Amino acid sequence: MNSDFVEKLAVETESRIVLLVMDGLGDIPADGKGTPLEEALTPNLDKLASEGVLGQFDPVAPGITPGSGPAHLALFGYDPVANNVGRGILSAFGIDFDLTERDVAARVNFCTIDSNGSITDRRAGRISDDENKRVCAKVLASVKTPAGVELFLSTESQHRALLVVRGEGLSDKLGDTDPQMTGVPPLEVKALVPEAEGAATALRDILKQVKRVLADEKKANMMLLRGYSGFKRLPSMKNRFGLNACAIAEYPMYRGLAKLVGMHVLPPYRDFQDAVAVLKANWSAHTFFFVHVKKTDSYGEDGNFEAKKHIIEDVDKTIVPGIVSLNPDVLVVTGDHSTPWSMKAHSWHPTPVLMRGKLVRRDRCTRFSETECQTGGLGRLPLVDLMPIALSCAGKLVKFGA
Hints:
Layout: H1 3-9, E1 17-22, H2 36-39, H3 43-51, E2 53-58, H4 68-75, H5 87-94, E3 103-113, E4 119-121, H6 129-142, E5 150-157, E6 160-166, H7 197-213, E7 222-229, H8 237-241, E8 245-248, H9 252-260, E9 264-265, H10 272-281, E10 288-293, H11 295-301, H12 305-324, E11 330-334, E12 351-357, H13 370-373, E13 379-382, H14 386-393
Parallel strand pairs: 1-10, 1-11, 2-13, 8-9, 8-10
Antiparallel strand pairs: 2-12, 3-4, 3-6, 3-7, 5-6, 11-12
Helix pairs in contact: 5-9, 10-12, 11-12
């Protein structure tokens, strides 16, 4: 649906929408098992399914595997292709790094390479935040930047960090160094347009030094760069949809995404009980709540079926009852994309969606699962269309035409 069209119909009301996102929730059966969502014990989600409507949504388009950035932008009602941004800016916003128009930001994965220079672990064993900080400090203390270029390197979480180069005339039209696979060496930074050659040259020099500086590290002995981005902001959800929106998320990138669309970002929660407490404490101040759970995606990427299943059960046991107790006008439970544990990666499979509210037309589904969602009343739609449906069910879109 055309988002400009939806904006013209949006009205500000006191009704409340909660969007609960279990990152990478969708999955596929493998090794004789159902999906983690199908195998999980989820009485609260199943009750919501029997009271609401299910469906499956394509984050970008059928058959397209999405990154977390475009998938979340679609969830928030933004065209994921027209508004695509690099992960660098999301990392920057997520850790409150003040980007300028002279900056190019990149998402860093610290990785492990062998003696031949080939990648053996793209995530460096998911090193701790403290280890990440130590390695970042080591790099900054030793790397000499080219003339006219400043280097910033800040810890994000575990193996992830933010790298920023600052200087005049730097372009973000650069090729990633992350090949997205093991057994091969990192790619070289390439300029995708002639005007990006200056930034590419600077980053090639920096990465050459990084490899030398980190050569004695056991795990984080190299870095991979992807998602280059210059400074950018998108129109806010307040201006577009009349939503006073806030974000409750533990992971920096998703707080960055929320800031990109003008949400008020609350401090990261400690555990699921704390997430519910934060939601309740801020209930009267906002009309849209984005509640994000990361580990469903992380355990999918790790190929850990049991851990992904248990996280879903913990969400059902703790977060879902807390949200239901507040009686939101619309509750949406979904993922941003699928991360099948058997693939250990994002996939193109549509994400399952549950919607419950007083104005939601029920279907006959009784369990929240990928299989049930295939027969649900919402059908199969682009994920960007989920927001208009939620807005209508919350009484936030007026009639079109006479």
